[in-house]
């Protein structure tokens, strides 16, 4: 069972601080275990005990984290251990994680209200369509039902409302690409990604790829070796892209925009890669682009959030028109019939 994201990050941050102080990975784990035992943090004690056992057996630390840590953090630890730059990768990821958490808050908080209103609108139209309208419609011949009332009754007694709910869910999945549902190792996910799907997952995976590659190259690794390390220890989604990038390198491609053009990076990021100085090294160009990548992802999320807000409010407006208009016109028709 995974730890909460905040607890994963806190544990790795404390581990990185120990490495910065000159402790070995095993000494860091012992120090963390003593603090967890003193404060009676049972979950942290179990995690660290398992890590100590791994290290005492001479096994790598990365694979031992799968049970409790997210795939991206496991990859960073595994790549950092393999390359001998675990401390640098963890410190680099701390900055990225702060930017990502801020971007997530700015993305989801403004969407909570329209999503809640959308849920209330669906509940209200279902209740009125099933509980109120049939009682009103009994007194009026079907041929005399107003158009909006007919639409309301038809929508709530057919698959239209479930279809609308499904469309909202599909729009969120199309925009987000939840990691538990979407994996770019699957061909159909890559095909949909080429048509603009799963922007959130793709953009943040691109930031992770750029920043990890940059830190590896700063430590003296070549571009191909950096991709090989990410491919070996990263998720299946990243492995698909790094495999394609390594294939291009093997074919003699040396232009960064063409190498990274695998459907993961946005056109804006590829544009920045292509605009590097002719005298700049691959490492220098990647470092410059990686520093802007999180900002580009945040701006893309802002545009996506605005689009989702417009979509939600449009659906809410349509539901209210049908619900209020359908019930109102039916009541007017019933009143006129009664008065006659």
TrEMBL record:
**Protein family:** Belongs to the GSP F family.
Localization recorded for this chain is: Cell membrane
What name does UniProt use for this protein?
Type II secretion system protein GspF domain-containing protein
Q: Which InterPro entries does this entry report, sorted A to Z?
A: GspF/PilC (IPR003004), T2SS_GspF_dom (IPR018076), T2SS_GspF_sf (IPR042094)
Domain spans labelled Type II secretion system protein GspF: 13-130
Lineage of origin:
Bacteria, Pseudomonadati, Pseudomonadota, Gammaproteobacteria, Alteromonadales
UniProt keywords (A-Z) are:
Cell membrane, Membrane, Transmembrane, Transmembrane helix
Q: How does it sit in the membrane?
A: Multi-pass membrane protein
Pfam families, per database record? T2SSF
Q: Which organism is it from?
A: Pseudidiomarina donghaiensis
Per its UniProt entry, which superkingdom is the organism in?
Answer: Bacteria
The answer to whether UniProt assigns keyword Cell division to this entry is no
